[in-house]
Amino acid sequence: MEKKCLACKKSPLDKDTIGINKKLLGKDIKTFYCIDCLANYLDCTVSDLLEKIELFKDEGCELFK
Ligand SMILES: [Zn+2]
């Protein structure tokens, strides 16, 4: 199934976006937000999220491989 943003229906969502959704909202979630809507939902900025993604990648997090 193609992954779409729950809020704005943007698709497809890239691997990093899916990864950060799982990392922040839980591994077993079935619905995902695009990076803009996720930032909105979490009340932070897109660049905060992009920084987090880089951080998790540096840590070797399996969700971003
Ligand atoms: Zn969206």
Would you give an account of this structure?
Helix content is about 50%, strand content about 0%. The chain is an all-alpha fold and about 60 residues long. It has one domain. The longest helix is centred in the last third of the chain and has 13 residues, at about 45-60. The radius of gyration is 11 Å and the shape is globular. The model has no long low-confidence stretch (mean pLDDT about 95). Zinc ion binds near residues 7, 8, 33 and 37. Zinc ion binds next to helix 2.
Topology:
Layout: H1 15-25, H2 35-42, H3 46-58
The structure holds zinc ion.
Zinc ion binds next to helix 2.
Bound molecules: zinc ion
- What helical percentage do the residues reach? 40-55%
N- and C-termini, Cα separation: 20 Å
Assembly annotation? single chain
Total tally of structural domains: 1
List key phrases describing it.
0% strand, binds zinc ion, globular, 65 residues, mainly alpha
